[in-house]
Design brief:
It is a single chain. The protein is mainly α. The chain has a single domain, classed as BFD-like [2Fe-2S]-binding domain (Arc Repressor Mutant, subunit A, Orthogonal Bundle), CATH 1.10.10. Strands 1-2 form a two-stranded antiparallel ribbon. Strand 1 and strand 2 form a beta hairpin.
C-alpha cells in the first residue's frame, strides 16, 4: 500500500481514506461515479476543490489495479 499522505488539506482526507472508501464500494465501473461516492464518504474536494484532480487520479489508478505500493 502507498505511504499514507494527505490528499485533501481542507477536509484532512488521506490517500488511505480514499482507498478505504473505494474498497468498501460494491461496484466500481465509472471513475466519476466512484468520485461522487468517495466524496460523499470522505468529503474530499468539497472545500476549495484544489484536490479534485489528485482524487480523480488516485481513484483511476486504484480502479485500474495500479494502486501505489
Amino acid at each position: 500500500m502507498q505511504e499514507n499522505y494527505t490528499v485533501c488539506k481542507c477536509k484532512k482526507v488521506t490517500y488511505s481514506d480514499i482507498a478505504d472508501a473505494l474498497h468498501k464500494m460494491q461496484k466500481l465501473s465509472d471513475v466519476l461515479d466512484a468520485f461522487e461516492d468517495v466524496k460523499k464518504v470522505t468529503h474530499c474536494s468539497t472545500g476549495c476543490g484544489g484536490c479534485h484532480d489528485k482524487v480523480i487520479d488516485i481513484i483511476s489508478k486504484i480502479m485500474m489495479g495500479h494502486e501505489d505500493k
